Amino acid sequence: MRKLALTDEQLLSIEKPARYLGNEVNAVVKDKDSVDIRFAICFPDVYEIGMSHLGIQILYEMFNRRQDTWCERVYSPWNDLDKLMREEHIPLFALESQDPVKNFDFLGITIQYEMCYTNILQVLDLAGIPLSAADRTEEDPIVIGGGPCVYNPEPIAEFFDLFYIGEGETSYDELLDIYKECKKQGKSRRAFLEAAAGVPGIYVPGFYEIKYNEDGTIDEMVAINDHAPATVRKVIALDLDHVPYPDKPIVPFMKVTQDRVVLEIQRGCIRGCRFCQAGMVYRPVRERNIDFLKEKAANMLKNSGQEEISLSSLSSSDYSHLADIVNFLIENKGTGVNISLPSLRIDAFSLDVMSKVQDVRKSSITFAPEAGTQRMRDTINKGLTEEVIMSGAAEAFRGGWNKVKLYFMLGLPTETEADMEGISHLANRMAAVYFDEVPKEKRNGRVQINVSTSFFIPKPFTPLQWAVMYTPEEYERRARVVSTAMKGELNHKSLRYAWHDADVTILEGVFARGDRKVAKGIRRAYEMGCLFDSWTENFDYQKWLKAFEEVGLDIDFYTMRERSLEEVFPWDFIDAGVTKNFLKREWNRAMEAKVSPNCRAQCQGCGAATFGGGVCFEN
Amino acid sequence: MKIRVKFTKEGDLKFIGHLDVMRFFQKVLRRAGVAICYSAGFSPHQIMSFSAPLSLGLTSEGEYMDIEVSESGSSAEMLAKLNAHTVDGIRVLSWRLLPDGADNAMAGFAAADYTVKFRPGYEPEDLAQFWTEFEAFCGQDEIMVEKQTKRSVKQINIRPLIYQLKISEGEVFMQVASGSTNHLKPEMVFQAFYDSKGEELSPFALMIHRLEMYTDLGDENERKLVSLQDVGTDIL
Ligand code: SF4
User: Fold this and answer.
1) Structural domains in chain B, sorted by start
2) What global pTM score does this model have?
3) Residue A284, preceding bond cis, omega within 30 degrees?
4) Which domains does chain A carry?
5) Protein residues whose CB sits closer than 6 Å to any atom of ligand 1
6) pLDDT band at B89, cuts 50/70/90?
């Protein structure tokens, strides 16, 4: 029988020991002596968060389909176990076999948000793997990073042997085949990395050197190894109907954040919002076949016993067969299956569907206008007009809803007081729509408009990647402008306002557009005890400031500096499909508050058509 | 029809909480295609109730849940069906039809059997001596312990709550009163013994295993303990 890595006493003295057992239904267990490659796949956050991530489930399925590979899961030990492991020198283990990660061939880390960077170091550290790739030996696993954050991997480049840029379904087979061959021939770590550098989508940071200008910006990035290509082009799966997708998702014992099976209906987004990194780097849009989805939905529900299924995509309303798949789920759901439909545009169709799958009185409808005035929405290319928003709201109010969530961003480029106050005014007008639409006798409680704002963070490969950020004080001032305006609204009693923390925004901003120099700040912060920074109760901004100061990092250089259109960015070596010329064009249009049509209305020649598929070739 | 299901919770699964066990069974029942009944409304849930939750770290071969189903195969068929969809550590032991009007597993719960032994590494120096003293302690007429209530600290006698006690081969078998009125946890007896000696009991020292749960079909004068599964009958 499998022996747990932790003793009874250890498991009983920490919170939620179920996080560390690894014996869930549908977890894959293989004979470790009969495989050639042991792959530990890690989501560097606590189990409940990591288990909710679809990407890992897809990779888990894909790797374990290979006879020669056993892929197991690793998550960040929560603070209590972290402490215990350090005190008692317990090495980090993978869940399924409970074996130390250090003995694996690969440690693959998916990097979904910047605020997990210290947790990456925690995972390496607890595993007993040197933090810097340069210090690793033949005994250490190959540490590979993937996920959206690797569209600028530079701030964490020194901690990784490899980055995989693009969609996992594409190049991993080739990479693992090469690894297996190298291992068989007893080749060195370096020889493998050189071979890997030739695989599409693979970036070996150690094979490049950065030359800086006197002002601290990048002069050029030079390959210092003959095997390293000058640019690394992202890889994508063009045909999403013939790639691995789970039929038997793992069923956690404990309640996790996404406690449901997830059906990814399409990848990418046609809209082209100028702030949205996902909308740019996942281009072009590729839809999944309706029959593929029906089959997967049925299999996943049957094999997991889960009671909820959720559709996933950046903008479900743009999926061509949305009505088909939704009706299929409603008709075939059987008893006790809930359907959750995030990212739907509010219109007659979606309201009709929602009224069938949820309790109208208890649920709320969600709009993400992102900005309070039409000028600002045009600037960010959020092609949503107030008319459309209000008619959607009116329809919902008539249908019985009286709770609304509104999402906005503050701190957008060119934002004025009028744009900030516009957020409050829009919410106020929406409340007024309720009073106009719903006669007194039909009202069921007061209408509730919950407004929340986050602060805009410029991201690589977006048209707004040139934008200047602000100080924490300025962000908070902007939030107060909204808050004050709201108190003065006629319908203020129906409005609620919450805003996100500005300190985290600054750091995310530094990481998003940072260069290799930022790594020492991350390392110092980790050494000082920063961990689980995406958890408000753990986040310690003062410590971060101190860490940056100690290593001589100037935050303002990354956040407050005006970047010229000609500046070489740390991520310029990546070819993500969208060209820098397209992004510049879009930046200029943003400055003129001009909207650009979406992919289906009129192609903008962004560059993603070079992948040879998806929406670019629909007609 | 109301069904009573008896199951084990052993091995690594002793580390999953009571709510997790419930969630686990909800999914087992769905995977196995059991015709479980749902409550009405927008978010229907399975009609299901559990007997006294086991604390984290304890093992058991006598856990119970009651469910309502619209149809059922024979008990043997249903056992095979469910066991094909569980994991190591949880095994379904019986599937029995409850008579109309039977108390649910929680309400009817009156007593339980346990075995308790020391976790390796935590044994007293002289184990034989320990058990002799422990047996003598439990043989007294009165074992007073302090019970913290909401407002005050009360002295209660737990001796009458110990129905049976037998020591053999390094472990003790105990049958104790359980349920909503008089609930005695085996570790409370050990705690009282250690307190009487002025010694410290490590929170990890004991390995407690639940064997069976009972309902009381007797009257005030005489107990008549019947195991929860024997309230129901096998479906043939
Ligand atoms: S090439 Fe045109 S259609 Fe294709 S993703 Fe870019 S803008 Fe959209």
Assistant:
1) 2-107 (3.30.70.580), 109-230 (no CATH)
2) 0.95
3) yes
4) 8-233 (3.40.50), 260-357+583-619 (3.30.750.210)
5) A 283-284, 599, 603-606, 608-609, 615-616
6) very high
